[in-house]
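Below is just one:
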Amino acid sequence: MNLRQLECFIAVAHHLSFTRAAAELGMAQPPLSQHIRRLEAEFGVALFLRTNRRVELTDVGRAFLPRARSLIHQAQIARSEIVEMAGVHRGHLRVGASGTLAAFLLPELIAEFRGRYPKITVQIAQRRSEDILRMVETGELDIGLLRMPVGETPLETTKLGSEPLIAALPPTHPDRNELRIPLRALKREPFVLSVRKHEPFYSVVSDLCVAAGFVPNVICAGAEYTTIFRLVGMGVGVSVTSELASNLAVTPSPVFVRLDEPEAIITTVMVAKPHRERPEAAQAFHALALKRQADQDRSGVAT
């Protein structure tokens, strides 16, 4: 049993889908299935019931799930403590992030990192997701913060947290005062999105709409969040975005409303070269981000 097998088990248990779990972990489905089979072979018992239509946890799988999560949590803390004991004092960190992660999450991480390692200089890149992924793969960046799905990559992909997707509505929209709305309530609305058609988040929104019974009428795509939110605020259309993005202040502003769909979530991941290939500064940042997330998970803070 190894940590990767546990991560695979936890992802499948969360999604009850090998396809969605593979997308979250940034890997193909066959190796994911192989990790699960090896774990089950080691235990000598099935962890999942598989049929053509659904995946379910067995009683043993349900009992093992909290233990698997605890093992991953302890491993993250141990890695962080080891890096701290190693005493990284100097160096240079190159880190990039996409979208609102660059505006909100990344500054928080860098502020904490600089407080702990004041002699390490930091270079920041704010790009679209596919560019951040490519720059980490080619060695132009040490660490990248992205939204799932990431797709096939040789990089180590680590989940940092999830947050709900929300609807951005014009101030005059009839549902503006609702606490929650079903996505199907927007089926006749024009959509404006911050991503282009070939980008992963576009597929996330499109797939959610199709599952709700309609194909979104996207009339504008590819602009920055501030532009998209102003367009929504002006009544040009509606949008679906992350909860974090709703912190952006624009005028006129949209109204943000939660979506009913439980699967309407977006996951943040950290991508990096394998541990042995990272410079010490990148190892320290990676460990700090994991420990911060573990602390938030333990305290119940949503990310």
Summary: The two ends are 29 Å apart (CA to CA).
